[in-house]
Write a structure and sequence with these properties.
The complex is a heterodimer of chains A (432) and B (529). With 432 residues, chain A is α/β, with parallel strands linked by helices. Chain A contains 18 helices and 9 strands. Chain A has a 5-stranded mixed beta sheet, with helices on both faces. Chain A is globular and about 80 Å long. Chain A starts with 19 loop residues before the first helix and ends in a 9-residue tail after the last helix. Chain B has 529 residues and is of the alpha+beta class. Chain B folds into 3 domains: 84 residues, Ubiquitin-like (UB roll), CATH 3.10.20.740; 145 residues, Alpha-Beta Plaits; 235 residues, Rossmann fold. Helix content of chain B is 24%, strand content 19%. Chain B has 15 helices and 25 strands. In chain B, strand 20, helix 11 and strand 21 form a beta-alpha-beta unit. Chain B is elongated, with a radius of gyration of 28 Å. Classes of the chains: A alpha/beta (432), B alpha+beta (529). At the A-B interface, helix 14 and helix 15 of A face helix 2 of B.
């Protein structure tokens, strides 16, 4: 067992860990003090050097993203903290908001400083009411202590933070859907280009970062990019909050270094599978990632690259464990139903295709399956989101990655557990 | 300028041009639904996907911009972008998208008004699959009124959102929005604000399928039965370009015709439904002479002779009334017939309506005031004083065709007259006060030119046949001229009048049907007199 000491969640079990006095007592906001004496370019460079990659799902380099903000634009710049955590099997941002809100806020202020932003938003999932109330308190504490507002900590930097609650749509966690929603419009993702860094919120340069991503920032500033890079694989380093749920003895959030073997995560950290049942499959990165068979799962390291090699993704690091008793066809229907319900309805393939999947799977589960259905499931998922195997054709057929988010789990389920799908076919119709 | 290669074609494009627009301009068809040149690009229908070399995903051509790339990165050493619109990947993707679009589409083409001009039909025929692989139940919804004249058939809707964007960007009224989410999404109008703005009819035109329907045309005819005639709207001084669809003696609908110097892609509902005004009117289709309290029909020769006799008897003392509703050629001919005292019927202005997109409905609801002033000798501001001063007792009037009570001015003029000639298509109050009625043509029967308030001369073309004994208005005036003076020039066609007009009015010297074409001719800022 490794001897990794949690970084983001180090203090979450301590009394009043969410308060400003507590955060100050463990050295909170010293990174901010340091940053305010640096140039925004130096801060961006430090984050770039750390190889920090986004914790929301796509895993894009945070520093590079900040660098896309045009230097010569005289429009206002905006930083949006994406706290619309909605991916099934993912509940890490909620923990960070509950237990270490000032850590996140410090990260936000540093990020805002780096991109020249003076008004920043927290777009929080509507259902997170408790967290919303807590963050309101966090922010007023910060204003009272001159951590937000005018001349922050005696510098000449000003920043306001505004909380905006979502109204219950998964798609508003997608950055351009989020921006539309923040503008008071329907949460329909925007076509790119232009990218948000050029034209985002109110047509102004905008950076959208995830809660966990921002929470890493103070530590990178305090301990340096080389320290951060030394945790886990160099190309995608750092601590990571793994959310383990499903058929597991100790479900919960586990902070571990990137690259921890899935086997260790499931069997050592999270206590294995109840009743010593056999592992059947795992979603490694939320329900939008392609599923891994037990064999694949036990062989994979939880980092960006190893999972891509296994034709899946680290995503939101929501690890959903399934044991031998799970009916994969029912699971597939459940997932398809979720995505059909959450499709925004803008793009043709996603709006029409997700419900086609649900209708077909429902018929299959109810005993009305036809031999051709299995092939059709492949075709429909390919037509919604493109192939998983990029070498065989194009992928990404919709404005936002939602198409892939439904296609990949459904397709991988059918592909890897085809026998179970065939079992649902009425007997006489099974082709030998 | 960047060099783009689409399929086998090399095209030099303006930097920043989109692949879709470039392809269209060069005769390469890329199917699309949500893209409309007048609306913001949303890229949601996914129909216009093409393959761009060097990009891993297919790209929506409506939002793919061609720009200069660094010489080292040019494809094949010379192209800034290479696009495939016909390869297997693209062809297959179109099939896929069409399959999705047809899943819940009712395929009720036999009773759909869009049939024959439907992009879902056309693209399915060209690019789609011949068979459906969908074995589930379709989504079925009832039709709804979005406004008093627009109905939506939700089953046919493909959610391209053109109509929603139209109300946001063109009319600026934002009545429409997409309701609910995903599979349940549907176009809806605000409860407290139905789609009743004066541009509402356009949403039925821009709907690429048969989802949005104008109640005025619903189930009235099949598009392939109708004759399409390009013409110009005559309901205000903007002069929107239109297509008039008719069968035998009946107009069924008007749709806007693209002209970026006039109306862009759209027209207003005043003009769109204006043709109905002429359906129930009391037409005048024979020359008539007053005998006592009633009118008696006469042959043209007799009516013209009577007219000319009375004009002769009056000596030079004849007043003429031109009309901003008439063509340039007709007004010009009256100016030839009545030399000197010319006025026009007063007309009250309506409300001027401006839309955020620049679309305009003029306060002047006559089509040709500018042209009328251009082609006539001086038009008197105060006709009544001149009539008094010169003791005029004979008047030749081109009727506006607008039936309304006389104002005090007109009552006073008519009370002084011994003889009134009214050239009209309709038994108006004015016509009823005439001594002779000469039957001219109704607006959709006329041919000639009208000049809009921006100084653009446009070709008004006839969409309906002439009724009864009626004759072209310019021709009636020519008959009178000929009867007055045996040496007068004979015109056998309106184009000859146009030529004569050009000789006399320098600003109109280039006006000919050939030069006018479909888009009209600007007077190049030559001021009206």
């Amino acid at each position: 067992m490794n001897t990794f000491k949690p970084i983001l969640t180090e203090h979450i079990n301590q009394q009043d860990c969410h308060t400003l006095p507590f955060y100050r007592s463990i050295g909170g906001y010293t990174a901010l003090e340091k940053v305010l004496k640096l140039s925004p370019e130096d801060v961006t460079q430090e984050v770039k050097d750390s190889n920090l990659r986004g914790r929301g799902g796509a895993g894009f380099s945070t520093g590079v993203k900040w660098g896309f903000i045009p230097k010569d634009s005289n429009k206002p710049k905006y930083l949006i903290n994406n706290a619309d955590e909605s991916e099934p099997g993912t509940f890490k941002d909620r923990l960070l908001m509950n237990k270490a809100p000032h850590q996140m806020l410090e990260g936000m202020i540093i990020a805002a400083y780096a991109i020249g932003c003076h008004t920043s938003f927290i777009y929080i999932r509507g259902e997170f009411y408790k967290e919303y109330k807590l963050l309101e308190k966090t922010i007023s504490e910060a204003y009272e202590s001159n951590i937000l507002g005018q001349n922050i900590l005696g510098s000449n930097y000003n920043l306001d933070v505004v909380i905006h609650r979502g109204a219950g749509a998964y798609i508003c966690g997608e950055e351009t859907g989020l921006i539309e929603s923040l503008e008071g419009k329907r949460g329909w993702p925007r076509i790119k280009p232009p990218f948000p860094a050029i034209e985002g919120y109110l047509q102004s340069p905008t950076i959208v970062n995830n809660v966990e991503t921002l929470s890493c920032i103070p530590h990178i500033i305090n301990r340096g990019s080389s320290w951060f890079k030394s945790i886990g694989p160099e190309k995608g380093p750092g601590p990571r909050l793994f959310c383990i749920s499903g058929c597991i003895n100790k479900p919960g959030v586990y902070e571990e270094p990137m690259g921890i073997p899935m086997k260790e995560l499931i069997y050592e950290k999270a206590g294995g599978i109840p009743g010593d049942k056999q592992l059947k499959a795992v979603f490694p990165g939320g329900s939008s990632s392609a599923i891994l068979t037990a064999e694949e799962a036990l062989d994979v390291k939880m980092d960006f690259e190893d999972l891509v090699e296994k034709k899946s993704m680290l995503g939101s690091a929501g690890v959903i464990v399934m044991d031998e008793t799970v009916d994969m066809v029912q699971a597939c229907l459940n997932i398809a139903r979720f995505y059909a319900h959450e499709s925004c309805g803008q793009c043709t393939p996603c709006r029409e295709g997700t419900v086609w999947l649900v209708k077909m799977l429902t018929r299959l589960v109810n005993g009305g399956g036809k031999p051709n259905d299995i092939d059709m499931l492949f075709e429909i998922t390919d037509n919604i989101g493109g192939l998983i195997d990029f070498s065989k054709g194009s992928y990404g057929k919709t404005i936002c990655p939602f198409g892939e988010a439904v296609a990949w789990p459904v397709r991988s389920l059918v592909e890897k557990f085809k026998a179970e799908f065939l079992e649902y076919l009425p007997e006489e119709k099974v082709v030998a | 300028m960047p060099l783009l290669k689409i399929d086998d074609k090399e095209i030099q494009v303006q930097s920043g041009a989109t692949v879709l627009e470039t392809a269209e301009a060069n005769g390469i068809e890329i199917p699309h639904y949500c893209y409309h040149p007048a609306l913001e690009v949303v890229g949601s229908c996914r129909m216009c996907l093409v393959q761009v070399e060097g990009m891993p995903k297919l790209q929506v051509s409506c939002n793919t911009f061609v720009g200069d790339v660094h010489p080292d990165r040019k494809v094949d050493g010379k192209y800034d972008m290479v696009v495939h619109t016909q390869n297997d990947l693209v062809v297959q993707e179109r099939k896929n998208i069409l399959e999705f679009l047809l899943l819940n589409h009712p395929l009720d083409c036999p009773v759909c008004d869009q049939a024959g001009e439907c992009y879902l039909q056309d693209y399915s025929f060209k690019f789609g699959n011949a068979h459906s692989r969908f074995e589930e139940n379709k989504r079925v919804r009832s039709n709804e009124y979005l406004g008093s004249q627009i109905v939506i058939n939700h089953n046919r809707c493909i959610l391209c959102s053109r109509c929603v964007r139209f109300t946001q960007e063109i009319s600026g009224t934002s009545e429409l929005f997409v309701e609910a989410r995903g599979y349940n999404s549907k176009v809806a109008a605000l409860e407290e604000k139905p789609l009743d703005n004066l541009l509402a009819g356009n949403v039925a035109d821009i709907c690429p399928v048969g989802a949005l329907l104008s109640t005025d045309y619903i189930h009235k005819n099949r598009i392939w039965n109708l004759k399409k005639q390009s013409s110009v709207c005559q309901d205000c001084s903007v002069g929107c370009n239109v297509d008039v669809f008719s069968q035998t003696n009946q107009i069924f609908r008007l749709t806007p015709r693209e002209n970026h110097d006039v109306n862009g892609y759209f027209m207003c509902d005043i003009g769109r439904y204006g043709f109905h005004r002429f359906e129930e009117i009391e037409r005048v289709t024979q020359p008539m002479i007053r005998e006592g309290d009633s009118f008696v029909s006469f042959k043209w020769e007799e009516a013209i002779q009577e007219t000319v006799d009375r004009l002769n008897r009056a000596g030079g003392k004849v007043a003429g009334v031109v009309s901003p509703f008439q063509t340039n050629e007709t007004n010009f001919m009256l100016g030839q017939l009545v030399d000197g005292i010319i006025g026009n019927l007063s007309q009250t202005d309506d409300e001027e309506i401006n839309y955020p997109s620049g679309f305009r409905i003029s306060s002047d609801r006559s089509p040709n005031k500018r042209g009328m002033k251009d082609v006539c000798p001086e038009i008197l501001e105060d006709l009544i004083s001149e009539i008094d001063k010169q003791n005029i007792r004979t008047i030749y009037i081109l009727d506006n065709g607008v039936d309304r009570d006389f104002d005090a001015v007109w009552k006073s003029i008519l009370s002084k007259m011994d003889f009134v000639v009214v050239q009209t298509y309709r038994m108006t109050m004015l016509a009823q006060s005439a001594n002779i009625i000469l039957p001219g043509l109704a607006p959709f029967e006329r041919e000639g030119t009208i000049t809009n308030d921006g100084g653009r001369v446009q070709w008004l073309r006839p969409s309906l046949p002439i009724k009864g004994e009626s004759r072209a208005d310019w021709e009636i005036l020519m008959m009178a001229l000929k009867a007055l003076d045996n040496n007068a020039q004979i015109f056998t066609d309106v184009s000859q009048v146009m030529k004569k007009m050009g000789e006399k009015i320098p600003a109109y010297k280039d006006v000919s049907f050939f030069n006018l074409g479909d888009k009209g001719l600007s007077l190049n800022g030559i001021a009206s007199k």
